Amino acid sequence: MNLREIRTRLRITTALALLPVLALTACGSGDASGTAPAGAQASPAPSEDPVAAVRKVDSVAALLPADVRKSGTLRVGSSVGFPPGAYYPDGQDKPPAGQDIDVANAVAKVLGVKLNRQDASFETILPALGSGKYDFGTGNFGVTAERLKTVDFATYINDGQGFAVKKGSTTLKGKVTDLTQLCGLTIGTGAGTTFEATLDAQKGVCAKAGKKPYDVKVYSENGATFTALQQGRIDVVMSTINGLRYQAAQPASQTTFLGEYHRLDVGFAFKKGSPLTKAFQAAVNELIKDGTYARILKKWGTAASAIETSQINPPEHTES
Known about the structure:
alpha/beta, 5-stranded mixed β-sheet, 3-stranded parallel β-sheet, 11 helices, 8 strands, disordered N terminus
């Protein structure tokens, strides 16, 4: 057997050995993209259904373009990550659940349309909006100055950036308020996210402070990030505030949430100049007014992230 054959056999053996881990993270976690660490079980979705009573509001539906009102359908590129945003509590062959799913479904009912939900990886959705593949996108997309150059937003919640470590870790003992606290550490985060952008933009802070730089490992699947954390291949995870807080509350996850780093408005994403933006803004404000919005956030434990009114393309938050 030559060297190439040996390497090929080793790669196959390694891939087969990983299959049980991937099955646990992708299915057992109830997450299409494998968010929870291997062995963690998905929390069942809360049973209440605040969306059931939502009805079409003609004055809001009238804001939709005529062709959309006629077709009665909107295509949504949906990144199903982890609770409480969007996840698969009962496996990928069952409907997803989560705060983002409920808000999108409620907006659709106000507008009198059906959603054609298409699962997509997070980093592919925003670029696909410009090509017309989707009418809008969901996936906890934070509003940033860079994204506002090419995408429009109608906001529906305030979330942002936070950090978590493996339970019992003494690498970081408190809230991260400055990225120099991460110098010398390896950070895991998602591809195409605001977290990756923030870490890349600030990668020179450690050198300026005379410290060893931090290293960033980027993963396309959340499950891979958290598995790396549990296996000690990364020291800390940077992800959404609500997601990390929710995750740390589940005993099986074995993570500790280190608090908020930077708040961001989160919104439905549209191609630049989309006529749908005003209709979605009005629909979210209708849900806020009639109390449905508050009931959805209460269901998913995210009331602290509520907004008072939906905005179109608000400026990026500059404060932490």
